[in-house]
Structure formats: C-alpha cells, structure tokens
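#lab-general

N.A. 3:47 PM
ok so I finally got the sequence cleaned up, no stray characters, all 274 residues accounted for. can someone with queue access submit it? mine expired

B.Y. 3:52 PM
send it over

N.A. 3:53 PM
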Amino acid sequence: MKGLKTETKLFIAAVLSGVAAVFLAYMLISGKKEALEKSMEPVKVVSASKYIPSWTKLGSENLKYTEIPARFVTRAHVTDIKDIEERFSMVPFIQGEPVLANKLSDRGEQLNIAIPTGLRAVSIGVDEESGVGYMIRPGDHVDVMLTYTDTGAKTKALVTAMLLQDARVVAVGTDFSYTKKSMSYSSVTLALTPEEAELITFARAKGRLSLALRPLGDRGREKIKMVSFDDLTRQIRKNEKGEEAPGRAGAGRGSPADVSDDEEYKIKERVVEE
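B.Y. 4:20 PM
back already:
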C-alpha cells in the first residue's frame, strides 16, 4: 500500500467499505428473513369447533385444533385440549376462534360467577308455553312480556305489555351451563339491573310473565305498544276485511303503528333502558 497513490488508497478503502456494508446488510436481511419465516411457522392451538355460548362446559365435542402463525401465539392460547376439558367458557366463542385460558373458569358450578358485575340474578317461573317450549338455554337473550289487568283505565281491561327487552339468561332451572340435551325446567334466571330486578319482582305479583326468545346477535330495542282486547278485536275485524294492520303496510322493522287521535290515549309505550 506504500507505493500506491492517495487516490488509489481512497478508492480501495471505499470499495472495501462498500463490500463490508453489503455483507452486513445481507446478514441483517437474512437474519430478519429467518426470524420472519420462523414467526410465521404454523402452531397448533385449541379453538372452538362450533359456536360456544357463555358458561358452556368444554370438551372434545366443542373443541378442535387449528393452526395460527407463531407470532400471534400468546401465553393465553391453549395447545392441548386435555388442559381445558371440564372447564367453562366465561364468554362466547365463535366457530374457529382460538380459546384463551384467561376467558375460562373452573368454577362452573357456582352461579354467582356467571352474573356480570353490576347485575342481579332474578328467576321467573315458566311452563312449556311461557318458556318457549323449554328451548331457552343459558347465554340466550329474551324479551319479557307481562299480561295483567289494567285498573288505571276507565274500565278494567286485560292487557299485554313488553316489560323488558334483551335480558340475558344465566340459568334455566338449576342448570347454568349450555347444553343441547332435551330438558324441562320450571324457572329461567335472568341477569338484570337492580331497577329491572325490582320491576320483575313486582310484575310477578301483578300478572303472568312470558318470555320471547331473541335471535342470536339481535340486541336491538324497539318501541312497542301495549296490546288490549280492543286491539285484538280491531285486528280480527281487519282480517275479515282483508286490510293491513296499522303500521304494517310498507313499514320497516320497529316502525310505529299509525293510529287515530281517538285511539292515541290507549297506547302506552315503555322502553326499558339498560
């Protein structure tokens, strides 16, 4: 190097520096590529083989293995079905969703852990008719209707009113884990706010309570008028004439009924807010 000109020395140094930079860049990219490929390697984790409602006992009948990239696996993921058999889901899982250990409970035999914070468990007596043919299960959502004698009107009248909407079922009979087996029960337990619990307790002494099962995922609330014998008679007469019921022709979901001024005083609307 002593006999080389300064310009030549600088050129050689620049070339060597460039080669070194390329080599380091290659090593860095190769390392990142290797790490990325490793992080994308599939890992088997336990997931739901079908929809699992809240407070369902877990086992081979509702669990399966599925693969997800290693980079997305956390300490909460479960890799062996045997580790969570006989445990209970605290939240619902959709089909194919990985089951996380922090969303499971060993205390499936205790109702108090199934009640969301701030709510209260209140039971309603049901039979096959008022309990939708005993097809209601824990985790479902229902509407509660009350049929009673209205003494506030000018004359006593038997009426049916929507009392609560979108109430969560936490137990049927003494069972608060979801099951598809055929069964009958004499009560349904709902998770309600303290105010709703008072309302239901009073309503039980006032008349007959009936439940309406809501579709899965339907959490909407609507304005619904109270129904009386006059409404029933009016509808029968309209059916005889082949007329549409008020508010039904061209009305969308939740559209209020069209009523005349002389009928307006008969309509009472109640929407129970959460």
